[in-house]
C-alpha cells in the first residue's frame, strides 16, 4: 500500500504539508493539460452539482493550493482538505472523513501516465472529489460514510462498505434532466471512462441497490462492467441512513 508517496514526513493521522512551492512548472503544465482535457468532457457528462461547483474553484491554471480551497470549503459546507502522501490506512481515512476532512494526495502523476493511473494522484483527488464537497447533501453523506467506516471496522465489514464507496463516490452515475450523468470521482477524472460510462451500450447501468452493491465485487484496472445509478444525492443519503449492522450480517451469512 502507498508505494509511491513519501510517508516519512507524515503525522500520526498521515497528513503532510502540501509544500506548494515544490511543484515544478512541468507539473503545473501537466495538471493544466489534464484539466483541459476533462473540461471538454464534463459539460456533457458530469452531474450538475459538480459543474456548478467547479466554476467557483479557479483550479484550471495550476495545481491548487489546498489551504485556499479549504477556506472556501469551510465556508460552504464545513469541510477542508488535508494533504496526504497517497493511499492511507482505513482507520486514518475514515477518521478524516468523520471529521469533515477530505484527504487529497499531494503528488501528480508522471507525463507517461496521462491517460491512465491506478493509484489516486492530486488530479484525481482534487478534480474528481473536491468540487462535490461544496454540495450540502453530498458533503453530509460523505461525513456519514466516514462515521460508518469506523463502525464497519468494529464489525469487520469494511470490504462490504468499501464496495458502496466504489460504486457511488468513485464510479457512481446519476439520472438528471439531461439524462445519465457521472458523479463518481473515478469517472470525472478519467479521460476515457467518462464518456464510456454514459454512452457505451456495453456496461450494465443498474438502479441503486444497497445490498446488491455490497455483494458486487469490482475491478480496479479496467473500465467497470456495472454502474449503479442514483436519482439524487438525497436518495443516496436516504438509502444509506439505516443501520447497516443487520445488512452486513445477512450478506455475510449468505456467502
Ligand atoms: N448507515 C450506515 C451504518 O449504519 C452508515 C453509513 C451512512 C454508511 C452513510 C455509509 C454512508 O453503518
Ligand atoms: Co478517489
What can you see in these coordinates?
This protein is an alpha/beta fold. The chain is 48% helix and 11% strand. It is built from twelve helices and six strands. It has a four-stranded mixed β-sheet with strand order 4-3-6-5. The chain has a two-stranded parallel ribbon with strand order 1-2. Helix 4 crosses helix 6 (136-154) and helix 6 packs antiparallel against helix 7. The longest helix has 21 residues, at 25-45. The radius of gyration is 17 Å and the shape is globular. 40% of the residues are buried. The model has no long low-confidence stretch (mean pLDDT 96). Phenylalanine binds at residues 141, 144-145, 148, 151, 164, 240-244.
Features:
single chain, four-stranded mixed sheet, two-stranded parallel sheet, alpha/beta, 255 residues, 12 helices, binds phenylalanine, binds cobalt (II) ion
Task: List the SSEs and their pairings.
Elements: H1 25-45, H2 48-54, H3 66-77, E1 80-84, H4 90-98, E2 101-105, H5 122-129, H6 136-154, H7 158-170, E3 173-176, E4 179-182, H8 185-188, H9 193-199, E5 204-207, H10 210-215, E6 226-230, H11 233-239, H12 245-253
Parallel strand pairs: 1-2, 3-6, 5-6
Antiparallel strand pairs: 3-4
Bound molecules: phenylalanine and cobalt (II) ion.
Amino acid at each position: 500500500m502507498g508505494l509511491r508517496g513519501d510517508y516519512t514526513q507524515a503525522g500520526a493521522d498521515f497528513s503532510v504539508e502540501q509544500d506548494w512551492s515544490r511543484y515544478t512548472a512541468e507539473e503545473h503544465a501537466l495538471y493544466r493539460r489534464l484539466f483541459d482535457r476533462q473540461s471538454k468532457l464534463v459539460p456533457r457528462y458530469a452531474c450538475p452539482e459538480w459543474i456548478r461547483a467547479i466554476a467557483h474553484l479557479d483550479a484550471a491554471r495550476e495545481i491548487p493550493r489546498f489551504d485556499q480551497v479549504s477556506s472556501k470549503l469551510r465556508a460552504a459546507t464545513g469541510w477542508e482538505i488535508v494533504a496526504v502522501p497517497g493511499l492511507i490506512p482505513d482507520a486514518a481515512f475514515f477518521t478524516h472523513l468523520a471529521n469533515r476532512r477530505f484527504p487529497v494526495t499531494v503528488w501528480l502523476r508522471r507525463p507517461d501516465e496521462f491517460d491512465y493511473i491506478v493509484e489516486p494522484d492530486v488530479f484525481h483527488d482534487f478534480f474528481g472529489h473536491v468540487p462535490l464537497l461544496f454540495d450540502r447533501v453530498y458533503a453530509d453523506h460523505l461525513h456519514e460514510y466516514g462515521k460508518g467506516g469506523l463502525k464497519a471496522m468494529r464489525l469487520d465489514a469494511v470490504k462490504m462498505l468499501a464496495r458502496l464507496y466504489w460504486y457511488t463516490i468513485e464510479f457512481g452515475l446519476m439520472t438528471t434532466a439531461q439524462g445519465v450523468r457521472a458523479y463518481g470521482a473515478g469517472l470525472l477524472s478519467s479521460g476515457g471512462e467518462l464518456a464510456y460510462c454514459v454512452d457505451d451500450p456495453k456496461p450494465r447501468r443498474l438502479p441503486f441497490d444497497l445490498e446488491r452493491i455490497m455483494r458486487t465485487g469490482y475491478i480496479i484496472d479496467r473500465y467497470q462492467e456495472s454502474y449503479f445509478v442514483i436519482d439524487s444525492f438525497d436518495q443516496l443519503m436516504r438509502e444509506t441512513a439505516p443501520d447497516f449492522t443487520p445488512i452486513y450480517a445477512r450478506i455475510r451469512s449468505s456467502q
